[in-house]
């Protein structure tokens, strides 16, 4: 495991995956109490970034 911190690259990586989870929640669920509660419903090969 690599700890990348909360600034710079760590923030960019975290923001990327948070945005992905939020978009997935918008597509699959009609309501979510808060966008901050977004999560991935299943594990998939998300690291295969194109």
Tell me what the structure shows:
Its EC number is 6.5.1.8. It is an enzyme of class 6 (ligase). 40% of the residues lie in helices and 0% in strands. The protein is mainly α and 50 residues long. The longest helix is centred in the middle third of the chain and has 20 residues, at 9-28. The model has no long low-confidence stretch (mean pLDDT 79).
Helix and strand arrangement:
Elements (H helix, E strand, L loop, with lengths): L8 H20 L22
Keywords:
1 helix, single chain, 50 residues, elongated, mainly alpha
- Taking the alpha carbons of the first and last residues, their distance comes to 23 Å
Unreliable segments of 5+ consecutive residues: none
Overall pLDDT confidence: 79
Could you tell me the radius of gyration in angstroms? Answer: 12 Å
User: What is the number of strand segments?
Assistant: 0
Secondary structural class: mainly alpha
Strand content: under 5%
Task: Please work out how many helical segments DSSP would assign.
Answer: 1
Oligomer: single chain
Task: Give a brief rundown of this model.
It is built from 1 helix and no strands.
């Amino acid at each position: 495991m690599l700890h990348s911190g909360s600034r710079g690259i760590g923030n960019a990586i975290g923001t990327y995956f948070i945005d992905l989870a939020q978009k997935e929640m918008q597509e699959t669920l009609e309501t979510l109490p808060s966008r901050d509660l977004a999560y991935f419903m299943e594990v998939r090969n998300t690291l295969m970034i194109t």
